[in-house]
Write a structure and sequence with these properties.
By secondary structure, this protein is mainly α. It has 5 helices and no strands. The longest helix has 25 residues. It is elongated and about 60 Å long. It starts with a helix and ends with a helix. The relative contact order is 0.08. About 10% of the residues have low confidence.
Length: about 120
């Protein structure tokens, strides 16, 4: 693990030297902290909850897509849905393309709330 942190420091350092945008410097500092933790023998037990959280998020997203598809067939497969991912249901339903959702907003909202 130490070699990975050293490689990350070098790569992010080179990127920072090339761009001089003070963005990659934070990654360098994070990699230094990771290197120090690895040298001092810190365990990677924090990765397990992160992986569990990511898996739970994916499961919720899949369940939410199924609920949306119930009221608007194949909506989750529509590439335009990526553009409206941050909108509320009411805002989404205000678009003409989503007119079929308007009568079902309350039901849809209840089902989505049940997933969380």
């Amino acid at each position: 693990m130490i070699v990975i942190w050293i490689a990350a420091i070098v790569v992010f350092g080179i990127v920072e030297a090339v761009t001089v945008g003070l963005v990659s410097i934070w990654f360098v500092l994070g990699a230094v902290a990771g290197l120090l933790a690895a040298v001092l023998g810190a365990a990677l037990c924090a990765a397990d909850p992160a992986l569990s959280f990511a898996a739970a998020g994916l499961a919720c997203a899949t369940a939410a897509a199924a609920v949306l598809d119930k009221y608007s067939p194949d909506a989750s497969k529509n590439p335009q849905m990526k553009l409206v991912g941050g909108l509320t249901l009411r805002k989404l339903a205000s678009f003409p393309q989503s007119a079929a959702l308007k009568p079902h907003l309350e039901e849809l909202d209840k089902e989505l709330q049940a997933i969380e």
